[in-house]
Amino acid sequence: MTDAVRARLSLLATLLASLPGLIGARFMVARYLVASVCALASDMIVFLALDRAGVTPMAAALGGYMAGMGVHWTISVRFVFLGHAARGVTPAQRIGFVASALLGMGVTMALVGVLSAVGVAPAIAKLASVPVSFFTVYAIRKYGVFAAR
Q1: Whole-angstrom Cα distance, residue 56 to residue 62?
Q2: For a designed S-S bond to 122, which of 57, 63, 88, 118 qualifies (C-beta 3.0 to 4.6 A apart)?
Q3: 87 or 62: which carries more pLDDT confidence?
Q4: How far is Cα 126 from Cα 111, in angstroms, rounded to an integer?
Q5: pLDDT computed for residue 9 by the predictor
Q6: Is the pLDDT of residue 118 over 80?
Q7: What is the DSSP code (8-state) at residue 81?
Q8: In this predicted structure, what is the pLDDT of residue 19?
Q9: pLDDT at 87 over 60
């Protein structure tokens, strides 16, 4: 067997050995997306109810985001970041989760405020803020708050 064949077989073995981790990471993103959709549904229901009640768009965004944060926490520790539910969530992770949510809430409120101020309908402004907040908060939680210990 030549060195080139050995190198290719070694590379193939390495790739096959890392496959379960890659699949698990993909499923984590899918689980996080499901949690985010549930949280977003809660968020939007509260946001739209507050908006309809005459609350300012930024305050409605705050109320909705806070409701969604509670839903997201519950689903995240029980369904998304599975190893942490079994080991227990640390106080530092709780603080990190809230801090990342506050950052996401700030991004959401700022975008809703700016877009509403320039004439975008509040619900559309809220939807426009979703992907920005989603990717920001997901990265912080995956690589910081719930990173492998």
Answers
A1: 10
A2: 57
A3: 62
A4: 8
A5: 53
A6: yes
A7: S
A8: 43
A9: yes
Which among 75, 96, 62, 63 has a CA at the least distance from the CA of 31?
A: 75
* Token digits of residue 136: 């920001």
What tokens appear for 125 in the block? 């402004």
CA 135 vs. chain centroid, Å, equals: 6
Is residue 57 within 8 A of residue 125, CB to CB? The reply is: yes
**What does the alpha-carbon distance between residue 137 and residue 131 come to, in Å, rounded to a whole number?**
10
Query: Given the structure tokens 């509260």, which residue do they identify?
Result: 46
Q: Are 69 and 61 in contact (CB under 8 A)?
A: no
Amino acid present at 40: L
Q: Mean pLDDT, the chain, as a whole number?
A: 81
The yes-or-no verdict on residue 77 having pLDDT over 70 is yes
Taken in order 140, 146, 104, 139, the sign of the CA dihedral is positive
Triad 96, 84, 89: Cα angle to 5°: 50
